[in-house]
């Protein structure tokens, strides 16, 4: 499922599919095919809750 992920400041957003959460990092698959790892502490509270509910 594709969703919009937002950083804690609200200035960075990315459309991506959640792949995994490991070692404090979210692995996301962006629409352009690139996979990125983002530290959970950089994500907004809503996205952190989403990860907690889906892992």
TrEMBL record:
One of its GO terms (molecular function) is identical protein binding. Residues 1-55 form the SLA1 homology domain. Pfam families: SHD1 (PF03983). InterPro entries: SHD1. Signal peptide: none annotated. It comes from the Eukaryota. This is SLA1 homology domain-containing protein. It comes from Mucor lusitanicus CBS 277.49.
């Amino acid at each position: 499922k594709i969703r919009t992920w937002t950083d804690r400041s609200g200035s960075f957003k990315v459309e991506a599919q959640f792949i995994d959460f490991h070692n404090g990092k979210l692995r996301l698959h962006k629409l352009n095919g690139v996979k990125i790892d983002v530290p959970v502490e950089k994500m907004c509270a809503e996205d952190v809750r989403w990860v907690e509910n889906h892992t």
